[in-house]
Design brief:
The protein is 78% helix and 2% strand. The chain has 12 helices and 2 strands; from the N terminus they run H-H-H-H-E-E-H-H-H-H-H-H-H-H. Helix 4 runs antiparallel to helix 11, helix 5 packs antiparallel against helix 11 and helix 9 packs antiparallel against helix 11.
Amino acid sequence: MNQIEQLKSDLASTREALLAHPVYASITDIEGLKHFTQSHVFAVWDFMSLLKSLQINLTCVTLPWMPRGLANTRFLINEIVAGEESDVDEAGNRISHFELYLRAMKQMGANTELLDILFAQIQSGKPIQQAITDAAIPSEVKTFLKFTFDIIENHPIHVQAAVFTFGREDLIPDMFLKILDKIYADYPEKVSIFKYYIERHIEVDGGHHSQLATEMVETLCGDDAQKWAEATAASIQSLQVRTRLWDGIVHGL
């Protein structure tokens, strides 16, 4: 077993528990879906912050430009960034996955007020960790966000890459897809964008981007056993934090 296969093996039981989490079966109607998105949107957003941290650390984003890092790694992260920041909506128009998610929430009538308030606090200059602490958001969302920004601020790039690749993967079991199809059948005019978002997410993030990200982790960890151990530990912790986020959503339903 090579190192990347060993990491996946070490994550398997935690990942399988997430796939079987009761949050998916608990979402049975459009009101439940709204509730889910109002917490999950924070994870969609901070995923982008983690992605941009990788780009900042693995490529040159300052002037004057100078070559930085390995060209292969630059290619991997830049291709993922391009796809996440400027994919296409259901009409073929360019849009980021996060903005597409917000559009889906607006279509179904979900509330984005808590996210808007957090954004206003950050844009006013408040440090991110303080803004999260002060935000009127559920405690499990705070824990999730604080974990992500601690990884960004205080952990090496191979750990960030592993959390991005293995810990931040949105696990979407077949059961959830069937539930979503049922909700869409009842409310096509309210759920069509969200359904497209999920299908696009599976197509892009779960396929091509997943492979690119895995290659990035392999490159950054190399043959360093300590780096692989750190990457594995952080990925497991991230999945555990995701479990607590799902627990909170179920409790609020």
